[in-house]
Amino acid sequence: MKAREEAVFSKRTAWPADENPLSRKLAALKKAGHPVLDLTESNPTRCGFGYLRQDWLSPLASSENLLYDPSPRGALAAREAVSRYYARRGASVDPSQIVLTASTSEAYHFLFRLLADPDARILVAKPGYPLLEYLGALNDVSVTPFSLKPDGWSLDLAALKRAASVKARALMLVNPNNPTGHFISPGDREKIVRFCRERSLALLADEVFFDYAWNPDLRGVSFAAGSETLTFTMSGVSKILGLPQMKIGWIAVSGPEKEKREALRRLEIIADAYLSVNTPAQHALPFWLENAEAVSGEILRRVQNNFEAFMKLPEAGRFIKERPQGGWYAAADLPDSRSDEDWALHLLGAEHVLVHPGYLFDLEGPPQAVISLLPEPEIFLEGARRILRRL
Ligand SMILES: Cc1ncc(COP(=O)(O)O)c(C=O)c1O
Predict the structure, then answer these.
(1) 208 alpha carbon to ligand 1 midpoint, in Å?
(2) Which is the most buried residue in 72, 108, 184, 223, by most CB within 10 A?
(3) What is the tally of structural domains in the chain?
(4) Same domain, 309 and 172
(5) CA 326–ligand 1 middle distance (angstroms)
């Protein structure tokens, strides 16, 4: 069978067929009918938010959606709405700088195809978002990690330079990062922009959590505002509007005029090959983005309240030492009597609470668990109490 598989399928899809021990244990518990408190839940539509009762769907029923009038960069009215979204955040981004995509994940795909030949390297800050490695591999791009400093997740320029000794095409950042919630500071941003310009690296900034600043003073301006080096800033309604199923996102291209124009010309051809953004979502985008702050406000209150409630539990301060700057997650230190995977297995087996082991996000050092702060407060607090009593 192995020889046949090798003859039929690509090497890039030779993923291991067996589930990891945590997924196996979860499946066994569910099969046995045990309810599990899921503190990895990252799907906001499953977390009982009030915004889901608002009317987001009526613009989808418009009869203009029956007309197919594709435009490779996306409908102008939708791109104008994205431009206004950035203007409200202090960044001037012309609609002509925007290319719509079906999701941020698709934006990564387009950008990897735009920038990298097979086996090219992309520098990626770690810890970080685990899907990137898959998205890279699916596009024949290798991800070369560079570690951020663990005390405060600031840039370690020496680590970046070491990683960049291999010829890379681009540098990738998530701002604020998933799962650490850290925003790139103005000082680090300057260094990164200079580094990219000097080494002719494209700068890719994933800002899906940009609206989730716990302390707005630390947020700064979006990377979409930058004009010093070729920059691709990605976002979409998945997080901004808490509606991942609507499948609309974008890339904002900024930088020196000539490179920006060439990047847009090429991206337009990639987008034209797929035309993947559905018409109803494009037409609805202006209405959705005008109303997005109510959603992000509600989600932000939930994640912050869950965090504060966690920190009020006895002993919580021993495991979480820092308040996140942004995002939907928190990382907790665990006693080093077990590995993070063993802790996750133990918490699931003994307490029926699911957490992410930190290694999934390349969190190094003492064992850590990453928890989602999205769940409904009762579920979250019960899960948090059970975790703490086991630690
Ligand atoms: C950092 C980051 N980028 C991108 C995505 C994916 O976004 P989309 O649903 O728009 O593909 C996620 C989803 O969790 C994410 O955490």
Answers:
(1) 6
(2) 108
(3) 2
(4) no
(5) 15
